[in-house]
Specification:
Length: about 170
Amino acid sequence: MTIVEIIRAFGRDLPVGIVITDASIERPGPTIVYANSAFGHLVGRDLNEIIGQTPRFMQGKETRRATLDAFHHALRVGERFHGFLTNYRADGTKYRAEIDCRPLSNVPGKVEGFIAFEREVVRRIGRPFETHGGRYEAVSTSNDLLGDALRGLGVFSSSEADLRPSGPKEIL
């Protein structure tokens, strides 16, 4: 069983967008090899339109170049990227996305692809929290068991300290 098959089995109904790409980060890549229905809903596209595309289709005039450069650098050196981007849906509406992208490595440690967890966020009203997304909060939350597993993996945690086990966190 491949990692894509495992993700497909467990991530299909997850309310967080999941995208798996190949390891090619130079244009025109990377190429999307898997996306779950939550991702299709987030970007306003049918999954058949997404597979084989590059995630760059979501970028637009307000997508910050500096954030894209940081994202590209993290992928190039095989590191995790966690950040926020302004993306665009198929109908042209913009949204703020929180992205947690991690390399998928084989046993010898060679990066074979990337997995990204994505969700829509909005600006918090009032004083931002010190941890997690700071000035952003998720548009929707989930308390399902798979969400607990993602929290255990530190998905959407903003620092290495957040990756250590602690009490329950409402981040999905």
